[in-house]
UniProtKB/TrEMBL annotation:
Pfam families cross-referenced by the UniProt entry: AAA_5 (PF07728)
Highest taxon listed in the record's lineage: Bacteria
AAA+ ATPase domain ranges (all copies): 39-203
Protein name, entry field: MoxR-like ATPase
PANTHER family: MAGNESIUM-CHELATASE SUBUNIT CHLD (PTHR42759:SF1), MOXR FAMILY PROTEIN (PTHR42759)
CDD domains on file: AAA (cd00009)
Amino acid sequence: MNRVPEDTGSIDGLTHALQGVGYHAPRRLATAVFLAMRLQRPLLLEGEPGVGKTELAKALAKVLGRPLLRLQCYDGMEQREALYEWNHTAQLLHMRAAQATSTPDEIEREVYQARYLIRRPLLQALQTPEPGAVLLIDEVDRADEPFEAFLLEYLGEYQVSIPELGTIQAVAAPLTILTSNRTRDLNDAVKRRCLYQWLDYPERERELAIVRSQVPQASTALTEQVTRFVSRLRNQPFANAFQRSPGIAESVEWAKALVALDTLTLDPEVIQDTAGILFKQREDVAALLPMLDKLLEPEPT
């Protein structure tokens, strides 16, 4: 069942609505989303993995009561996987059945009809009726430059061209969110068609609110310890020791794991046992262990 859309007619209303589904957006991010909706422009989100880029699209779909369509990008992605492909089996069956009664020109016109299209996320987003879809183009930096060039028509005009059918324009403008982990720079032509926002690791108070909303079973003391510990990992003098600092997703998963282990307070043993939730590289886990005593020291008053 779709969620009933909430009041998103102001930045404050949008911020409140997102908080209602567990997404705590800073004001600058809520402003960027509000403008993307008002101006009907795609929004490009860049930032480290785990800072909440993908989760924002999911939260917006819930808040706005729109279907979420996700296009997961990867190296070598082809247009047919993003836009459409023809149902060749159905076309072949129709051609065989029509051979006795139709001319070749008639058969060709009949097999290139919309009912033989297999719609992929971009075309689905354009053909979603009011109020439109939320389209997540996830990790666009993993795709290659030809795919970026293919996206330009959609991003700039909310339309696509299908040779056999012509130009297809949006029934209702999709709210389009592109995410990038910045493994490479995107083409300037893509960036010019989008509003832009960089997502950094959250301030501790915001992360504390996120963990509390996502892991309500955790005690107040434990959530404070988790967010303080993870915040220290991301800041000097500790941050340079790691290839990648834990994101919000890791903080939430770690808190869930600690609750499952009936943990009341952090200590070196439980951190060692669960370090694989915070870090996904052997070298990072190895770098963490000698630092535990310093990381667990009380903050100066």
